[in-house]
Amino acid sequence: MTRILLVIPTLDRSGAEKQLTLLATHLPRDQFELHVVALTRGGPYAETLRQHGIPLTILGKRFRFDPLALYRLRRLIREYQPDVVHSWLFAGNSYCRMVAGGPGQPPVMVAERCVDSWKAGWQLWLDRRQIDRTARLVGNSRAVADFYLSQGFPADRVQVIPNAVESNDLLDDQAATTRAAVLQEFDLPPEARVVACTGRMARQKRITDLVWAFQVLRQCTENVYFLVVGDGPERPRCERLAVEFDCQHLCRFVGHREDVPRLLQAVDVLWLASDFEGQSNSLMEAMAAGIPVVASEIPANQELIENGVNGYLVSVGDSVGFSQFTDRLLNDAGLSRRVGAAARQRMREEFSIEKMVQAHVEAYEEISARFSVSRPGS
Fold first, then answer.
1. What are 339-378's pLDDT values in tens digits?
2. What residues make up the domain containing 116?
3. What is the pLDDT of residues 177-205, one digit of tens each?
4. How far apart are CA 158 and CA 143, in angstroms?
5. What own/partner pairs with CB < 8 Å and gap ≥ 24 does 310-318 have?
């Protein structure tokens, strides 16, 4: 039985946390023994792990560098004796490589989820300093892998394992019923055509570009509404912009929601305008639901979207482009169905949970065999 210790800062409802939970709950339990560690706190996904009988330890990290949390992590690794430590995100990756990955210690496999151009110089320096303690760096897209190759990580230790997406197989009659209920919840008319964006409202997401795009779109498309699902520091700015454009009555800023798959049943086109991404869960979830997407033409999105086939790509900051392609989709039902169906097929064939899990199984087996560490008493 191969022991895997999965370490992540929190179990909040966000992209990396969702992917860890999908992996942990679908790994074959006859091959792997799992233990999950949250450095700082639990979160919504903690209950999912508990329902699947997966042990969880919360270390209670309080500061950027917390010696007590580091000590607790080191002690847990010594007691658990994992074959592989699989860490996620900057804090998890840094803490784990401080206490493991060296001679006689369990190997560390780090998961990077974004093209981390946001990192400060000291963070990139620390990443490079810890290369020798990294058995494998896994990016969720080619763009992420290329970024870390440019930071000096050896090519033979960098691997791409794409995100997985759950299929959304609501029957047509169920989808129609759900759509009607969502429209009613947000006080939208039955004939509304809904454009949406989902996710954290951070600057990198360029939601203000989408408010501009909606202002253009509503000039040429009737009965169109903008649903903004998520919260974050850019929300007040976006709400003010909607007021300035006098389109606030057509916009719904609904904040963070736990039922995004349900809300997607009322969406006709999904937008993603980000400057950079690793691999967008919100984009993949919309495509898996058969919703046409229009997204910024950045490398990570290009890995998901074949322009004009299963979605549309526009230059970063091109609000008119978002409006132009969306108008085309909203006014050509046949085109919208073809693009949505192609998107759903791509997600099912290439980004299934089964493929993601199998790729991790093979990586764990390879790493544990190559860096085998004998356990006390074994």
1. 999 999 999 999 999 999 999 999 999 999 988 766 555 5
2. 2-164+352-370
3. 889 999 999 999 999 999 999 999 999 99
4. 12
5. 310/339, 310/342, 310/343, 310/345, 310/346, 311/287, 311/339, 311/343, 312/339, 316/206, 316/273, 316/275, 317/206, 317/209, 317/273, 318/209
Rounded Cα–Cα distance for residues 172 and 170 (Å): 6
How many folded domains does the chain comprise? Answer: 2
- Residue 119 has a pLDDT of 83
Q: Compute the distance between CA of residue 345 and CA of residue 290 in angstroms, rounded to an integer.
A: 8
H/E element holding 212? Answer: helix 207-220
**Widest Cα–Cα separation across the chain:** 73
Strand partners of residue 8:
38
36 in a structural domain: yes
Question: What residue type is 219 in one-letter code?
Answer: Q
**Counting runs of H as helices and runs of E as strands, what totals does the chain give?**
15, 13
What CATH code is carried by the domain that includes residue 176? 3.40.50.2000
193: CB partners within 8 A, 6+ apart: 221, 223, 224, 225, 268, 330
Residue 46 tokens read as: 């903690």
